């Protein structure tokens, strides 16, 4: 998927594609090792590994913390995600959905050197921004934007996720529901849906203040 615009309604998600990647489990455990160490668990020292119930609880905490880091970028990582989303929104407003899709596709699964926006980062930043805007907590958002926000006209990849996201964001719950959204729709549909929901929201913002979208995005995307 590059161009997020669809000629017809989006079909139901068929579920995740299961792919076996050799070494992935070892890679994940290496990522979790520093977090587990905070609980006194050293994966290289068998005597430090507790019973399975305690280990599972520690792994659950490690996964939760890792996900928080991925979906709540800070500093330069957040700036990269914001820039990617802003350019996407502006391209949609200019009716250049193919360009918008190409922009969103620059987000990568992981960016070890921090030089690129990530899929998780764009999802998390978009959901957080939508929560802030649609609940009226953004300092520059116009009054009534929560009720005004709609998806852009037409059909979109991730449109089902986008509808759910708008509904959740009006209650300030989109970011906290990201795990459920991804489980229900898949990460790529949620990424596209969050970006589409943000596009509709920014169009509503622009309409309310009587300015083009690209004139309001700089203050909105902070």
Structure description:
- The protein is an all-alpha fold and 222 residues long.
- The chain has 2 domains: 24-71, no CATH class; 73-220, no CATH class.
- The chain is 59% helix and 2% strand.
- Strands 1-2 form a two-stranded antiparallel sheet.
- Helix 3 (75-93) packs antiparallel against helix 4 (97-104), helix 3 (75-93) crosses helix 5 and helix 3 runs antiparallel to helix 10 (213-220).
- The longest helix is centred in the last third of the chain and has 23 residues, at 187-209.
Task: Summarize model confidence as the mean pLDDT.
Answer: 86
**Structural class by secondary-structure content:** mainly alpha
Distance between the termini: 28 Å
Task: Report the major sheet.
Answer: 2 strands, antiparallel
Strand order of the largest sheet: 1-2
The general outline is: elongated
Number of domains: 2
Tally of strands = 2
Instruction: Work out the helix count.
Output: 10
- Tell me the fraction of residues in β-strands, as a range: under 5%
Give the fraction of residues assigned to helices: 55-70%
N-to-C SSE string, H for helix and E for strand: EHHHHHHEHHHH
Rg calc = 19 Å
> Could you name the ranges where pLDDT drops below 50 across 5 or more consecutive residues?
17-21
């Amino acid at each position: 998927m590059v161009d997020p615009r669809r000629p017809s309604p989006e079909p139901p998600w068929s579920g995740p594609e299961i792919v076996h990647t050799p070494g992935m489990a070892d890679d994940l455990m290496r990522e979790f090792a520093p977090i587990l160490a905070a609980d006194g668990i050293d994966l290289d020292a068998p005597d430090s590994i507790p019973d399975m119930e305690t280990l599972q609880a520690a792994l659950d905490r490690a996964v939760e913390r890792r996900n928080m880091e991925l979906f709540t970028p800070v500093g330069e990582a957040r700036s990269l995600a914001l820039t990617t989303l802003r350019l996407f929104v502006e391209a949609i407003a200019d009716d250049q959905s193919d360009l918008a899709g190409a922009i969103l596709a620059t987000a990568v699964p992981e960016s070890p050197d921090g030089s690129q926006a990530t899929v998780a980062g764009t999802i998390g930043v978009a959901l957080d921004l939508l929560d802030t805007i649609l609940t009226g907590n953004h300092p520059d958002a116009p009054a009534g934007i929560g009720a005004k926000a709609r998806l852009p006209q037409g059909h979109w990849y991730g449109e089902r996720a986008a509808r759910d996201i708008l509904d959740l964001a009006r209650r300030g719950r989109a970011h906290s529901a990201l795990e459920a959204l991804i489980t229900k729709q898949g990460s790529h549909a949620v990424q596209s849906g969050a970006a589409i929901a943000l596009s509709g929201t920014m169009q509503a913002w622009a309409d309310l203040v009587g300015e083009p979208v690209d004139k309001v995005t700089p203050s909105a995307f902070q």
